[in-house]
Design brief:
Layout (H helix, E strand, L loop, with lengths): L7 E4 L13 H4 L5 H4 L6 H11 L3 E4 L10 H7 L4 E6 L4 H10 L4 E6 L3 H6 L3 H16 L3 E5 L4 H4 L1 H9 L3 E5 L10 E7 L8 E2 L4 E3 L2 H5 L3 H4 L2 E2 L14 E3 L2 H4 L1 H4 L11 E2 L3
Parallel strand pairs: 1-2, 1-8, 2-3, 3-4, 5-6
Antiparallel strand pairs: 7-11, 7-12, 8-9, 9-10
Helix pairs in contact: 5-7
């Protein structure tokens, strides 16, 4: 499947989350932009229509905590020709369990992130997180977990790491991309397939050609339109782009998935 991926989209149907981790990119950017955080969440039907219209090969569902929306399982069921990935913290048990019961064939990955800061607020968090991982493991046999390499996070996650290793759970130590560098203007102009191979979509359908453009200080001017309303205009995409591109400067070196969004960023050729 991976060799044939053309369109790999990231949708964020909600910014809401059980956790408010200090290192979360949503916490550090979206929550600080009141007009972006307060956007109206679009309903189930709008997302189904957009996916069926555009037919991306893969849609990763993230946020926020997507399973706070009770229709997320239905979205996966309604679009059988699209493969889905799901990123969750595992705390929305009812919806996670529903997915595990029905085992949709087109849900190819479930990532259950571990957040030690949440354990500070929820005394039974470790047990809830382990229960979620075990439920997915029983249903699909292939849960995946990640721990963000923010300051002190890995050290505080030793018990969780030991538990995953003892139980055969795959996990990733994800690079911590500091948002204060995303406004840096680089000397090298980059060209990419963001907007063609990839869109990053907010809860109201507003779209960006990549995560870097959304998280940067220039996010308002760099939106390429509204995906749910079918108003994408790639003439609004910066090219060449001089932002400190995460897909070019960070992921290929620090993340084993490399160019995970199929951006294919590289120096522009003139």
């Amino acid at each position: 499947m991976e060799a044939n991926i053309v369109k790999h989209y990231l949708i964020n149907p909600t910014w809401r989350c059980h956790s408010r981790c200090s290192y979360c990119w949503v916490e550090q950017t979206v929550r600080l932009r009141s007009e972006l955080y307060a956007v109206t969440e679009r309903p189930f039907d709008d997302w189904v229509l957009a996916i069926q219209r555009d037919r991306p090969d893969v849609v990763d569902i993230a946020g926020g905590e997507p399973l706070l929306l009770d229709w997320i399982p239905d979205l996966i069921f309604a679009c059988p020709e699209t493969y889905f990935g799901l990123s969750t913290n595992g705390l929305a048990w009812e919806q996670l369990n529903r997915i595990c019961v029905y085992k949709p064939h087109n849900l190819t990955s479930i990532n259950i992130s571990y957040h030690p800061e949440t354990a500070d607020r929820l005394p039974n968090y470790d047990k809830l997180w382990q229960r979620a991982v075990e439920r997915v493991q029983k249903a699909q046999g292939k849960p995946h977990c990640n721990i963000v390499m923010a300051d002190g996070n890995v050290e505080r996650s030793v018990a969780a790491i030991q538990w995953m290793e003892a139980n055969g759970v795959k996990y990733e130590l994800s690079p911590y991309e500091r948002v204060n560098t995303l406004g840096q203007i680089m000397d090298q102009g980059l060209c990419c397939k963001g907007g063609v191979n990839h869109l990053t979509v907010a809860p109201d359908g507003t779209a960006w050609s990549c995560l870097t453009t959304l998280r940067s200080p220039f996010w308002e001017s760099l939106s390429v339109g509204n995906w749910l309303d079918d108003t994408i205009d790639l003439d609004r995409k910066p090219q060449p782009c001089y932002l400190n591109c995460v897909d070019y400067y960070v992921l290929p070196e620090l993340h084993k998935a490399g160019d995970m969004w199929c951006i294919e960023a590289k120096p522009c050729e003139y």
